[in-house]
Amino acid sequence: MCVFQLRGPASDCANEPHRGIANRLMWVPEVGPDDPHINQTGEYRKVCLRSCHIPQRKPFACPNTGDASICDAPSGSASCVLPDTVCHMTTSQDRLAFASTLAKSAGKVLRTVREQNAQLRPAELRNLGDRESQTFIAAQLEAMFPADAVLSEEAIDDKARLSRETVWIVDPLDGTREYAEHRRDWAVHIAIWEAGRLSGVVAMPDADVLLSSHSVEQLPPRDDGPLRIAVSRSRAPVLVQSVAHQLGADLVPMGSAGVKISAVVRGTVDAYVHAGGQYEWDSAAPVAVALAAGAHASRIDGSPLEYNRGDPYLPDLLVCRPELATQLLGAIARAAKTDDGAQIV
Q1: Does 232 reside within a domain?
Q2: Domain end position, chosen among 39, 57, 88
Q3: Between helices 257-266 and 280-292, what is the axis angle to 10°?
Q4: What is the pTM (predicted TM-score) of this model?
Q5: The predicted structure's pLDDT at residue 94
Q6: Cα 318 to Cα 305: distance, rounded to the nearest angstrom
Q7: Please, which contacts does 179-182 make with residues 24 or more away whose CB atoms are closer than 8 Å?
Q8: Suppose 80 and one of 73, 147, 307, 326 were both cysteines; which one would form an S-S bond, judging by CB atoms 3.0 to 4.6 Å apart?
Q9: Per the domain annotation, does 207 fall within a domain?
Q10: Which CATH number fits the domain that encloses residue 297?
Q11: What angle do CA 197, 279, 310 make, to 5 degrees?
Q12: Closest of 169, 217, 166, 220 to residue 190, by C-alpha
């Protein structure tokens, strides 16, 4: 993917039928100094995306102004600065790079929505944030990767994904309660499932953190002291309390599932145990990051986590430092016998 700032108005663009190439205008927000194509004023700005073999699609709008336009400028024209070489957004690395920009941009959308709708009740703000982030992400994926399928918490599950080579697994706002309470522990999840291979990114916008399975560092050394297990702020973790009691572990409350798994990756906690019901979008992106960082990730019985299944319900998981996996799986098994049916998030 090549991204360049548009130099001229969209009306200056000419048609470019050559080889089916479409040069698009996409509205993206300022997302930090590592994205030099985007201005640093916090405003939405048009950038031109050149991608190959993508037919003309419907335009999508700037979240601030509602303006919508598509640019079909020829390569090297005065309107759109593009190289003569053709860009192919077909590799896993291309998709993951796009996912990183998209997750950061969705985070900016969510922060803007929250700032501009402070008068809403928390439930209304949660719903609005979910809806606006979903709309933004879906539009970008439809424009750039129309042949790919999408499985999202906020969209109807199209079972055609089961026959696709590539499926994006998206949670446009993980941790809606924390988001509406103006806390930092919420996230945007974007995972990419490609014929059984999983990659992904987790953006934590209020913490200014982006973790990618492509670039994440390996787990840091563990600090001395008792084990630390991430737990939910909102629901009683009955099973994990039993696990913690067996192992003399400390419980560390925090928000979204993505934040909890990211805490394992960053060394803030040693483990996250969940047995209270989730779906694939809750864990796909953070699990991809955790595995890339060298963490253990499995179901609580030790079996592999599988994604893009017919039923996206994925009720339990364990993410932890690899040297603790056997110890934690044993404690979970003992706790399950003692506290039959206990649920934990």
Answers
A1: yes
A2: 88
A3: 10
A4: 0.75
A5: 85
A6: 10
A7: 179/110, 179/114, 179/125, 179/126, 179/129, 180/114, 180/122, 180/123, 180/125, 180/126, 180/129, 181/122, 182/114
A8: 73
A9: no
A10: 3.40.190.80
A11: 65
A12: 169
Rounded distance between C-alpha atoms, residue 187 and residue 185, angstroms: 7
Q: SS3 for 152?
A: strand
Which residues, including other chains, have CB under 8 Å from residue 225's CB and lie 6 or more apart? Answer: none
- Domain for residue 58, yes or no? yes
- Distance separating alpha carbons of residues 120 and 112, to the nearest angstrom: 14
Q: Return d(Cα 203, Cα 187) in angstroms, integer.
A: 5
Cβ proximity of 343 and 275 under 8 Å: yes
Output the six-digit token pair for 260: 């909890």
Rg (CA), the chain: 21
- Residue 321 to residue 342: CA distance in whole angstroms: 24
**% of the chain beyond a pLDDT of 70:** 70
Closest CA to 273 of 254, 260, 287: 260
d(CA 168, CA 307): 11
Final residue before a domain boundary, out of 88, 110, 142: 88
Nearest CA to 139 out of 126, 150, 127, 128 is that of 150
User: Rounded to the nearest 5 degrees, what angle is found at the Cα of 292, between the Cα atoms of 291 and 298?
Assistant: 5
Q: How far is CA 337 from CA 59, 97, 253, 323, 340, in A?
A: 55, 44, 25, 24, 6
Q: Please measure the distance between the N-terminal and C-terminal CA atoms of the chain and give it in whole angstroms.
A: 38
Each residue's pLDDT tens digit, 6-59 = 333 333 333 333 222 333 444 444 334 344 333 333 333 444 443 333 333 333
Closest residue by Cα to residue 300 from 267, 275, 335, 326: 275
Q: Which residue has the tokens 């864990």?
A: 283
Q: How do residues 271-280 score in pLDDT, each as one tens digit? A: 999 988 899 9
Q: How many CB atoms lie within 10 A of CB 301?
A: 11
The two tokens of residue 76 are 């090297």
The count of structural domains within the chain is: 2
Q: Length of the chain in residues, anyone?
A: 345
Cα 54 to chain center, whole Å?
24
| Assigned domain for 135 exists | no
